[in-house]
Amino acid sequence: MSELLTLAVGLGLVVGLLFTELFGLTAGGMIVPGYLALSLNRPLDVGLTLVAGLFSFLLVRALSSFTLVYGRRRTLAMILVGFLVGWGLRQVAVGLPHAADDQLSVIGFIIPGLIAIWFDRQGIVETLAGVISASVVVRLFLIVLIGGELVR
Known about the structure:
Elements: H1 2-23, H2 32-38, H3 43-63, H4 71-95, H5 111-122, H6 124-146
């Protein structure tokens, strides 16, 4: 599994760079496409992660209306709030009825914060387009390189 994650993140870096150079769209942070590509077979997790990123972005934007949050502080606030929102959503998901092997969860710990940063910098629609497209491309490359369906 460790090798698969390493390969996915590496491919995500390359695909993200190509998307930035060719289309001018950043794919939500350097490691985001690789992590999401490994979870595309769990669309509810991907959706919950994107919602966590959006909620984090909105919380920091609201916070910045009455306090100084810019530059490094804003980046740190996005990642910290993304971590906390992801943690909170994980706690809520634990209480939902589900099968033991089909637990709903936010992907990663800093992924929602990285997505929130790019929602802020690039725009919501543009970031969603870049993240989803790059993740699908990484997933396709992984399927071709691994030689079949990925199991996570």
